[in-house]
Design goal:
This protein is an alpha/beta fold. It has 2 domains: 5-222, 3-Layer(aba) Sandwich (Rossmann fold), CATH 3.40.50; 278-326, no CATH class. Helices cover 44% and strands 14% of the residues. The protein has helices at 17-30, 45-50, 53-61, 69-73, 106-116, 124-130, 132-143, 159-166, 179-204, 237-243, 246-255, 280-287, 303-326; strands at residues 5-8, 35-39, 88-91, 94-97, 148-152, 170-175, 219-228, 230-231, 234-235, 270-275. An 8-stranded mixed β-sheet has the order 3-4-2-5-1-6-7-10, sandwiched between helices. A two-stranded antiparallel sheet has the order 8-9. It starts with a strand and ends in a 7-residue tail after the last helix. The mean pLDDT is 91.
Length: 333
């Protein structure tokens, strides 16, 4: 039995993918869902969120063999095979597989073997490389008996993200309220369908694989609107134009359905509209914790304390919606 893999993906940057993965990993673990978070963005922003600068220096400069995702797959670039990754235990039910800036060098390898996987022979190595992210993710999840795997990726449509999406059972799309997010959303639908179809052709080309392969489902779960300034709990009027176009564009581009006249808060496919928590964000970064774990000792007093409580409830609701949509094994309380 495979463990669900949810990737937070948008080829437009600055929409909060990393922050979402970080906070959802913590809130799910708080709700006793065992989570493995994986950083598959070569910029390693999620790794910088989870680990201190001293830990990062130790991680990347010491010869520990499989301390990052890249070191687990690196032997494939030569004549070796995948290695079981070492996970960082962040809390009782939260584990983390760090990223690595060296991962960017694996892009060329992935690009080279993509056409080779459609050849008439020697399928083992191309498929081992193309499915390496899924293999490592499942290896990591089974190692700690995880209920769910969350993945952060960079904002592009390159070979690394293609293999990450092939490894993903589900996809959640974070969006900002702007023209660029909508244009990115229009690109995502055709890209996901192309990758899904191309992977199926490759699987069909190797009818008797020598090891398990991902199905490349990339099932859309929904979208998340976020990073809006708020006034009286409603988005500022300047954003309304873009926010209100998202439900229709999502259906057309991602689901190939007819457009609808809905606001995101009325749309069942909108998993959440995450508020802009303003000064809580730098405060949480300073104390290296999610915003909903800030305390009065950290400076979260008065209106900040109320915002911390709201953030906890907001992410809890979001976690439950994702559980209902994906159906991973642990039932949230």
């Amino acid at each position: 039995m495979t463990i669900p893999v949810i990737t937070f993906f948008n080829n437009k940057g600055g929409v909060g993918k990393t922050s979402l993965v970080y906070h959802l990993a913590y809130i799910l673990a708080e709700m006793r869902v065992r989570v493995v978070a994986i950083d598959l963005d070569p910029q390693a922003n999620l790794t910088a969120a989870f680990l201190s600068e001293e830990e990062l220096e130790s991680l990347w400069e010491t010869p520990e063999p499989v301390s990052t995702i890249f070191r687990a797959i690196a032997p494939l670039s030569a004549i070796g095979d995948l290695r079981e990754p070492d996970l960082r235990r962040i809390s009782q039910d939260l584990y983390f597989l760090p990223g690595d800036v060296s991962l960017s060098g694996f892009e060329e390898t992935l690009s080279e073997v993509w056409p080779a996987s459609m050849g008439d022979s020697n399928h083992y190595r191309p498929f081992r490389i193309l499915s390496s992210f899924w293999q490592i993710a499942q290896m990591a999840g089974k190692k700690v008996e995880a209920d769910l795997i969350l993945v952060d990726v960079g904002p592009n449509l390159g070979a690394i993200n293609r293999s990450v999406l092939i490894a993903s059972s589900h996809v959640i799309i974070p969006l900002g309220a702007d023209l660029f997010s909508l244009q990115g959303l229009k690109n995502l639908g055709p890209t996901l369908r192309t990758w899904r179809t191309a992977w199926k052709k490759r699987i069909d080309n190797w009818p008797n694989p020598e090891f398990d392969l991902p199905k490349g489902e990339m099932q859309p779960v929904g979208y998340i609107c976020q990073q809006h300034s708020v006034r009286l709990n409603r988005p500022v009027k300047a954003y309304d134009k873009w926010i209100n176009r998202i439900p229709g564009v999502y259906r057309e581009a991602i689901l190939q359905q007819e457009t609808v006249d809905l606001r995101p808060e009325e749309d069942p496919l909108c998993l959440a509209t995450i508020k802009h928590y303003r000064s809580l964000v730098p405060m949480a970064q300073e104390y290296r914790k999610p915003i909903f774990f800030l305390t009065p000792a950290d400076g979260a007093i008065g209106s900040h304390a109320n915002a911390v409580k709201e953030a906890y409830l907001d992410f809890q609701v979001l976690a439950k919606k994702i559980q209902a949509a994906v159906g991973f094994s642990n039932v949230l309380k």
